[in-house]
Specification:
Layout (H helix, E strand, L loop, with lengths): L3 H49 L18 H6 L26
Length: about 100
């Protein structure tokens, strides 16, 4: 059988291990929370960048794949004929096959 001293040492070691584990969990949660905050900040910064000098509007694809930029957006962004622009396409509604839309 072990002495009371051995039991006290074992309990002390166990308490230290539990405390270190708890500290490690707290540190992990802090770091995870910081990562979430950084990710949200980066997302909102990117979103702001996408919308600050850009326009978002809906348009219909015409024959030959042509689309039109509404006049209000062209004026707001000072886009003139012949200017090069970048377009990001996100389909929001597909025309049903056999539809008579033109």
């Amino acid at each position: 059988m072990g002495s009371n001293h051995d039991i006290d040492d074992t309990m002390s070691s166990y308490k230290k291990a539990v405390e270190k584990g708890s500290e490690a969990q707290n540190e992990f949660l802090k770091q995870f929370s910081n990562m979430q905050q950084d990710a949200m900040h980066n997302f909102f910064t990117m979103l702001q960048g996408l919308t600050f000098y850009n326009a978002m509007f809906k348009t219909t694809v015409q024959s030959g794949g042509r689309i039109s930029i509404p006049e209000a957006e062209r004026q707001a962004l000072k886009i003139d004929d012949g200017d090069l622009v970048q377009v990001i396409i996100i389909p929001i509604e597909r025309r049903k096959k056999g539809s008579d839309k033109s």
